[in-house]
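Trying the structure run again after the queue cleared.
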Amino acid sequence: MEKRTKFLLDEKDIPTKWYNIQADLPQPLPPVLHPGTGKPITPDDLAPLFPMELIKQEVSTERWIEIPEEVRDIYRLWRPTTLFRAHRLEKALGTPAKIFYKYEGTSPPGSHKPNTAVAQAYYNKKEGINRITTETGAGQWGSALSFAGALFDIEIKVYMVAISYHQKPYRRIMMETWGGKCVPSPSPDTNAGRAMLAKDPNCPGSLGLAISEAVEDAATHDDTHYSLGSVLNHVLLHQTIIGLETKKQMEMAGTYPDIIIGCVGGGSNFAGMFLPFIKDKIDGTKPDLRIINVEPTSCPTLTRGPYAYDFGDEAGLTPLLKMNTLGHAFIPAPVHAGGLRYHGMAPIISHLHNLGLVEARAEHQLATFKAGIDFARTEGIISAPETNHAIKTTIDEALKCKETGESKTILLTHSGHGHVDMAAYEAYLAGKLKDHSYPKEKIDEALKDLPKIK
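Done. Tokens:
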């Protein structure tokens, strides 16, 4: 078993149910509030944007939610994904640690995002919706929803953060290949976009602003729903298929992780891994399990943002979520890890962090690309810039084991490949990639606009 590299499950092992952490939280999540009244939001308030089945999942406290067979049938295109033992990386580091990574880059769009995109498209189609708007940062979510839209014959309109739209043109081409329409945000297509362009014609955009545009588009078209690729409870729920598969594969490997590591922007890919495991920490089965959320120093939501109610978007159109936030007006630095440039963090992750059940760490862009290249030169996979943040922390933890002589088991959540991010690697290798330090003044300014909740 020590020499085994891949741990494979059969298609019959694809989970039949998603795991809902809300059934096992030691304290319930704070309520989501209506942006106009400040009172807890109702299903009817969300109905113009989401299908009712997703709204039910958002508030459900049932431990297990059935995965529709139509969704599982599409999952078979790439699931179950492989769990790898990183023997070559371990050897290069000279560490006694055992490093495993669950690789989500084999999905058609190349990331974890289709796990929820397919489910969301399915529920929308079932409700008779034929057009969906959404936002995307680096483009993983936009391409995943465009892929899902093609499978269910749904028109997809994507507002892509402008800096990523220009940095990552091949993500736009992927969306268009699957039939999606992609525009840079801020765009002239919405009031929110036009207002920002008037204020700053060269605005690099933000996920918060792109969300404002997508929500406004959906709210002003009777035939359209909105879809979100991270943050919300139902999105994290769909991603738990990652952790459920991994638990079976770790059993095949004859071990259990001491440390689980993943990158976080909105938090869905990492939550999808650790939520099925954190249940063991909550119930006392694995009290010493460490869970490390890794974010960029240029957008340090968990490590620097207060735990407070805030809008999920820049224009203040969305419900108010209790989360770690840098302020909905915060425009992050234009780092290449576009999927991590979000001002807020998933309420579930923020809640668990507030309870002391998970950790957070911020990594510099230059250090993460070095880690990504070390990973590529040992394990062979060229990782997404987002994933490189988790790789950097994984290497650091493995080197700590080298210092102490401990043979800990480290589980890395590998969210996807970087094949359309080669311009970023080229810039790093040429010494042209910038290091964006913690922009304290920008965050302080954005936090002034936090909603006043009594």
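The chain has 19 helices and 15 strands. Worth checking whether this holds up in the mutant runs.
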